[in-house]
Design brief:
Blueprint: H1 2-20, H2 24-33, H3 36-45, E1 52-57, H4 60-70, H5 73-78, E2 80-85, H6 88-93, E3 102-105, H7 111-121, E4 125-129, H8 135-142, E5 147-153, H9 167-173, E6 178-181, H10 184-192, E7 198-200, H11 205-214, H12 220-226, E8 231-237, H13 239-252, E9 257-262, H14 267-276, E10 283-284, E11 296-298, H15 305-308, E12 314-317, H16 329-332, E13 338-341, H17 348-355, E14 359-362, H18 366-378, H19 384-397, H20 400-409
Parallel strand pairs: 1-2, 1-4, 2-3, 4-5, 5-6, 6-7, 8-9, 8-12, 9-11, 10-11, 12-13, 13-14
Helix pairs in contact: 1-2, 4-11, 4-20, 7-8, 8-9
Length: 414
């Protein structure tokens, strides 16, 4: 399987440039990776004498998970931190200033390219966030003197990595120094496959949510808009959530305000939302500092949602009517009652919040949402019971980034 995989990757090296002329996504993919070694060279021109910690994140979500670890004062003091991304969402939007010294795209997983990459970056510690297990990258790392670690690992039966075909990948992972997994079920899966390097940790997104709450930026225009009045926030919304919220705002609760932070902030999608909510006088976040004449503000930006949650009284988090639920922790850390679509089975944190009685899955019939949210309307704008449940829950879940930081900082790298 390893030989077949390597042949496929080598074939892709020649095939992708041919297809790029007819496909804009592949063309962007090719162009992005042409800058990899240039980006590394630019970083190395100003490199300090500290040992290098190299993170690899598939996209922006994985980078956000790891921020509490790499922003730890001892980690920052001991290491020069660099990060690689597979997707443009991380490379373009990750807030790396003051934390990361260099960033670059991960090239195709070719044997020669990965040997060159590991040699040039020359890491003392490599941290792989969650997944993105590239076989030839792991082989090159394991042949170096680098300490290799996985954090926020999730493993289950039925994944490629745990299947018979995934044996070459597992063999490389078994050589990693430590694999931090989020759940006991993941540990059991790996132990059944003869892994001896696993450590039970927790989802580092809990630490990140607490960190963001502590460092939340004030948004004066949103504060003036809500004026501590009942406010519904749609977090990373899709059309399904926006439709349900529209019925609620129009027919059920004509007093509550709304902040809409769509998953897709393209001009086309923003225009669609504006047209749908036209009778509620929606304003774009970037168009004005005065939203007093509107009931709806549309966050047509990336990066303001986590701070905007502090001004809401109830949250409707998007994605769970489709491929997957977006981050509910950023809403939960502010003590908000949360609603979502009903496709949450693959999201343990959402299932736990449901058991705690603070997250409510709804179906696509708006009447179901109207029935459930009515409970919170009757209890007023502040649900102290929900706030207290979530405060205690976060206290129990956080602190694991610090534990991992102490481990990597305690390594003997001489």
């Amino acid at each position: 399987m390893r030989i077949l995989y390597t042949l496929i990757v080598e074939f892709a090296r020649y095939f992708l440039p041919l297809v790029a002329g007819f496909n804009q996504k592949i063309k962007r993919f090719q162009n992005q990776r042409e800058t990899t070694f240039k980006d590394i060279s630019e970083w190395k021109r100003n490199q300090s004498s500290k040992p290098v910690m190299w993170l690899h994140c598939a996209s922006l979500g994985e980078y956000e998970m790891i921020v509490p670890l790499i922003s730890d004062s001892e980690v920052q003091s001991k290491f020069e931190v660099v990060v690689s991304f597979f997707s443009a969402s991380g490379y373009d939007h990750a807030k790396t200033e003051g934390i990361v010294r260099g960033k670059f795209y991960l090239p195709l997983d070719r044997i020669g390219a990965m040997k060159q990459l590991v040699s040039q970056v020359n890491p003392s510690v490599f941290v792989l966030v969650k997944y993105d297990f590239w076989l030839n990258l792991m082989r090159a790392l394991n042949k170096s003197d680098c300490t290799n670690v996985v954090v926020n690992g999730q493993f289950r039966t039925g994944q490629f990595i745990t299947s018979a075909l995934g044996s070459p990948w597992r063999n490389q992972l078994k050589k990693f120094h430590r694999i931090y997994v989020q759940y006991e079920s993941s540990m059991k899966v790996l132990e059944s496959l003869s892994f001896e390097n696993t450590t039970l940790s927790n989802d580092l997104r809990y630490d990140r949510a607490m960190q963001l709450k502590t460092k939340n930026h004030e948004i004066p225009s949103i504060a003036a808009f809500t004026k501590n009045q009942p406010t519904l926030i749609l977090g990373s919304s899709w059309p399904e959530e926006e439709y349900i919220a529209l019925q609620y705002l129009t027919d059920f609760n004509t007093d509550i305000k709304a902040i809409i932070a769509p998953h897709d902030v393209s001009q086309t999608n923003i225009k669609r939302i504006q047209n749908a909510y036209q009778h509620l006088r929606p304003k774009l976040f970037t168009d004005s500092d005065d939203f007093t004449e509107s009931r709806v503000v549309i966050l047509n930006t990336i990066g303001h949602l986590s701070s905007a949650y502090q001004y809401a009284t109830v949250a409707f988090v998007g994605g769970a009517f489709g491929k997957g639920l977006h981050n509910v922790l950023e809403a939960a850390v502010h003590g908000l009652p949360i609603f979502s679509g009903n496709n949450i089975d693959k999201f343990p944190e959402a299932k736990t919040l449901q058991k705690l009685g603070v997250l409510h899955p709804v179906d696509q019939d708006p009447r179901h949402f109207l029935e459930l949210i009515g409970v919170y309307d009757q209890q007023g704008t502040s649900n102290k019971v929900v706030e207290e449940i979530l405060r205690k829950w976060f206290e129990e879940q956080t602190g694991h980034s610090e534990e991992i930081a102490r481990y990597v900082c305690g390594l003997n790298l001489n």
